[in-house]
Amino acid sequence: MARQAIIFKYFVPKLSFANDEQLLCWDMTEFLEYTLAHRREIRLAIPLGDEIADFEWGDAAYDDQNHLYRFRLSKLRSKNIPSKKRVNTPKDDIVLANDEFLGEFNLFIFNPATGTLIMQSNFYGLTTKQTALALSGMRNEWLRATGDEEEDMGLVSLDPVPDESAIQRARNSEIYKSFKVRCSNVRTFADHTFNSDILNTAVRETDVLRGNNIEISVTMGQGPRNSTLNNADVRSVMDDIEYLQGQNFDVSMHVATKQDEEHKVEVIDLVCPVYRTSLVLEFEDRTTIGAEYLYQNYLELNYFDENVHAQHTLNTLI
Q1: Domains held by the chain: number
Q2: N or C: which end of the chain has fewer CB within 10 A?
Q3: Closest CA to 161 of 8, 7, 314, 277
């Protein structure tokens, strides 16, 4: 049996239109009701460059007991195809027909009561940006099918459900495994003096080189479970990034932390912390995790779990 950690992130789907700067919340209920009632009757395969986002009709359902919609989107690719291989034997190419692809899957759960979309993270699957583009195209196809097509169909965006407690967890952690900082338009704050020598040096040298953007990545690499970067220095960088964010400069910072030696590593976005939950599943080797199996485990281990209780937390965050 294999064990895999699975992360879920939480978003509010929103719509933007060219003639309106205001973002409107998108209640996905009508869209999902239509897809469930008209399976395969509209084309929901959306090109994303060299890849395709596809709606998995067989994995879409409404849970009338918990009042949740679930569906899966797949990312289909036909480039950089791996080979099959047995130990100490020659490889066998995986040959795909012209209408065949390799698929990676993300599970999505829509909660009509809170208007939130819960997205299963998959390193090989759709990114948040790709998901928003895919949902924009799928929404357009739905509007055309129902005769509601307009000149400006709008674009879907996914606004993270903020988790302010994540910032406090990052600051109170005992172990820092890595951090990454990005700053744009460095010249606009090159005359500032920062708390951290790291940022002071990076900004000064970037200005000397007449550069404009910086990216700093620091990691522990391999080491004992309790090994950590210097806590005071990491927190000083956090203070500087928080200050620059407050001044509306274009900055970002991600920190990989552990509350203590016994906890698992958590990557926290200091500028835009996204509420997330996680679980660990066991499944057979050489199998794909089924949507129903994943969904039921999410309900048990995250949504209704007395420690995580994502359902209650969402009600307080929205």
Answers
A1: 2
A2: N
A3: 314
Residues 60 and 28 in one domain: yes
Concatenated DSSP letters of 142-159: HHHHTT---S---EEEEE
Residues 209 and 281 in one domain: no
Q: What is the pLDDT of residue 16?
A: 93
d(CA 212, CA 198): 17
Q: What is the largest CA-CA distance in the chain?
A: 62
Q: How far apart are CA 236 and CA 172, in angstroms?
A: 13
Specify whether 247 is located in the same domain as 179. Answer: yes
H helix runs in 15-66, sequence order: 29-37
Pairing type for strands 45-48 and 251-258 reads: unpaired
Strand partners, 256: 178, 267
Please tell me the distance from the alpha carbon of residue 102 to that of residue 56, in angstroms, as a whole number. 14
Summarised one tens digit per residue, pLDDT across range 234-266 is 999 999 999 999 999 999 999 999 888 777 788
Q: Are residues 114 and 213 in the same domain?
A: no
Which parts of the chain have pLDDT scores under 50? none
Element (H, E) at 238: helix 231-246
